[in-house]
Structure formats: structure tokens, C-alpha cells
Design a protein that fits this description.
Layout lengths: L1 E5 L2 E5 L2 H14 L3 E5 L6 H9 L6 E5 L3 H9 L3 E12 L4 E6 L2 E3 L2 E3 L6 H13 L5 E5 L10 E7 L2 E14 L13 E7 L1 H7 L5 H11 L4
Parallel strand pairs: 1-10, 2-4, 3-4, 5-11
Antiparallel strand pairs: 1-2, 5-8, 6-7, 6-12, 9-11, 10-11
Length: about 220
């Protein structure tokens, strides 16, 4: 199974058994879900276009074929950029978040040539927030370990693009002043309790919520 975010719309590619679980989840959450039963030769691109032109938090389930083949076909319509970031916890269990271009977000950024995803995650967290000391821990996994990154789509230079972001658990005891990276559109950085983070997620992205849910558990 693969989950991809098109704006705040969620596209899920899944086989028959996983599809049933997805449908139950959307019914429970009362989020609208469109189901596409595709067979060999059907146009995956048409589903992409529907997701791109549907505004608001909705779901699109693509099934009917082997999920790996569907995922490969879906991703073939995009240029993929690799990125990395982290969920940083302080000693008192507060989360490092930032305000970028009108939304609350987690620190992340593009992987530079020659870098590993782990190295890029540490560098980006430091650059975007001004934090000096951070310890990079385990990779955050999704769908019970079957997906090792998040996918978020956008247009870049007239080309469909996916940012494939690898996430890591991080810890820090740093008490230096945090400095937002202004040239990246970041205007505020701070440490926030879980309760504060939940409030800030009302003005964030569904993909960010998913990362935090996988980190803290489904009851987040």
C-alpha cells in the first residue's frame, strides 16, 4: 500500500485486502472517498488529474490491480525529489515546529548530492531552526513498516513533482536561541507541548499530522 498527498488530498494505492481497511478508515473519519477500480490498460493519469483539481481534504483509493504495478505506474508521471527531515523532541517532550508560508510544519529539505538521507535530515533541521545540538535516531516508518517515507506532490517549473521525504526521530537538549531560516520563508520556530501541537495542526498539512501520528501513535 502506498499513500501520496496531492495538496491535502490523500491518494491511496492498495490491493483488495488493504482497500477494505482503507474504506473502513474513511467511513469512520467521515472524509469523502472516491474509489477507482482499475484494470490493465486503464488511465492512471485521469485519477491524478481528478485529485489535482479537487480541493479540500478528500481521499482517492486506486485498486483493482497489483498495488506494486499501480504504484510504479502512478509515480512514473512525476519527477521525484529526495528530501529528509525530523521530529525533534526536547528533554521535556516538547516538539520542535516552525511556521512557514502560512502553515505550521516540521523541518525538512532537499538532500544534497553526496549526502545520506540521515545526514540531510540533521543538516536541514539545524539550518531551518537554528538548533545546534541534535541526536538523530531511528527512521520513522509508515503503514506498519511498509512505507519508509512520505510523498507530497506539487508543480515545479511546469512539471509534476513529488517530494519523497525520509523522516527521523530526533532528540535534543539544546537550549540555544532558535533562529528561523528567513530565506526559506520561515518566520517562527519554537518548542511546543503535544496539546499545543494538536492545536497548530488545525493550520498545517495532513502529511505532517500523519508523520506525528506515526511517531506518537494513533491516539495522537
Amino acid at each position: 500500500m502506498l499513500r501520496i498527498y496531492v495538496g491535502d488530498n490523500e491518494v491511496i494505492i492498495a490491493g483488495k485486502k488493504k482497500s477494505e481497511k482503507v474504506i473502513r478508515r474513511f467511513k469512520k473519519s467521515r472524509v469523502p472517498l472516491q474509489v477507482f477500480q482499475l484494470k490493465k490498460g486503464d488511465d492512471v493519469k485521469s485519477v491524478i488529474e481528478q485529485a489535482e483539481h479537487t480541493y479540500g481534504a478528500q481521499g482517492f483509493l486506486i485498486t483493482g490491480m497489483k498495488s506494486k504495478k499501480l504504484a510504479t505506474k502512478y509515480l512514473s508521471y512525476y519527477r521525484i525529489l529526495e528530501a529528509a527531515g525530523g521530529v525533534v523532541l526536547s528533554e521535556d517532550q516538547k516538539v520542535l515546529m516552525m511556521f512557514r508560508r502560512g502553515k505550521w510544519d516540521l523541518p525538512k529539505g532537499k538532500i544534497d548530492p553526496g549526502e545520506t538521507d540521515r545526514e540531510a535530515a540533521e543538516r536541514e533541521v539545524k539550518e531551518e531552526t537554528g538548533i545546534i545540538e541534535v541526536k538523530v535516531g531511528r527512521r520513522i516508518l509508515f503503514h506498519e513498516g511498509h512505507q519508509d517515507c512520505t510523498y507530497h506532490t506539487y508543480w515545479l517549473g511546469g512539471v509534476r513533482t513529488i517530494k519523497k521525504t525520509h523522516w527521523f526521530k530526533m532528540k535534543s537538549s539544546d537550549r540555544h536561541e532558535l533562529i528561523p531560516q528567513a530565506d526559506e520563508g520561515i518566520t517562527e520556530v519554537g518548542w511546543y507541548s503535544k496539546k499545543q501541537v494538536k492545536t497548530k495542526l488545525n493550520n498545517s498539512y495532513r502529511s505532517v499530522r500523519w508523520v506525528l501520528e506515526e511517531y506518537f501513535g494513533k491516539d495522537f
